[in-house]
Amino acid sequence: MKQYKTEKRNQLMGFLMSHRDEPLSAEQIAEGVPGVALSTIYRNLAHLADSGDVHKSLSADGHTVLYQYYDKPRCSSHLHIKCVSCGEMKHVETELSQDLAEKLEEKNDFSIDAENTVILGVCKSCHDKGEK
Amino acid sequence: MKQYKTEKRNQLMGFLMSHRDEPLSAEQIAEGVPGVALSTIYRNLAHLADSGDVHKSLSADGHTVLYQYYDKPRCSSHLHIKCVSCGEMKHVETELSQDLAEKLEEKNDFSIDAENTVILGVCKSCHDKGEK
DNA sequence: ATAATTGCAAACACTTTGCACCTGT
DNA sequence: ACAGGTGCAAAGTGTTTGCAATTAT
Q: Which residues of B104-123 are buried (b: 16+ CB within 10 A; e: fewer)?
């Protein structure tokens, strides 16, 4: 089953890629690509999630499923940390990433898959705002 | 609004606590506490999730919401790594945890909240099984 | 010409809610 | 007695699916 290049898919990809570091709800995505049916969006997101090009997660309050484009080629060499509060994602320098990965692997028999790992935490600005 | 100690709630808590390191679907939980209505389970899970005693996440395939008891008093001092494939959760030694947290904080202005952070990756056995 | 993609509406699965009844304090 | 909890059935939500029409190869 090979893929066709379609107008709708391009719109979707374009929108997702212009929001790389931002997790979006299906609704937000739909608004970002007017003229594309919801079912089409869901079908494409499903493909993308399967192939690992889109990362699925839950919002901080656990009430909404979020989708986020994941740039494999660029991001497979380092870890990512994501703020559970605002959703912002940061890229951890490769050096530090590998250092961390090694240590966790050594001590916990835990083979970190940098490509898919996302460390969760709270970014500075969110932390400063509220001590939730 | 204070909480009553009820029979049903005890059953639920008991079941969740006996599966601390395992993320469970609402369905699995329901099977684990026969005689408790689904709506009651959901209502209690919602409370627990709000108060941070239960952690909500998505299954590896992204199709199911999972709930997992989180032992705050015992686990707030160290990080956790969770296998995205089988869901197993491991506790990272306190020393190493703090080491990692410090480094991430220094270099990325990212204040890690050990209490709520879960590092995702792939555990050894799952990694060995399939190179997915 | 053939296979993949799309939109629509219907079908779904999971979760939430209203209400009357029950239980803990 | 009163506040909080529970079950049931109904209502919601977000997501998925069947199908006929459309578009890419």
A: beeebebbbbbebbbbbbbb
Q: How many domains does chain B have?
A: 2
Q: Which of B62, B110, B119 sits opposite A90 (nearest CB)?
A: B110
CB contact under 8 Å between B58 and A65, yes or no, is yes
At residue A130, the pLDDT reads: 55
Task: Tell me the three state secondary structure of residue B6.
Answer: coil
By CA distance, what is A67's nearest residue in B? B62
pTM of this structure: 0.84
Query: How far does B27 lie from chain A, in Å, by closest CA?
Result: 18
The enclosing domain of B115 has a CATH number of: 3.30.1490.190
CA of A18 to C1' of D25 (A): 28
Q: Report pLDDT for B71.
A: 83
Residue A86 has pLDDT above 90, yes or no: no
- Residue A129 inside a domain? The answer is no
Alpha carbon distance B74, B78 (integer Å) = 9
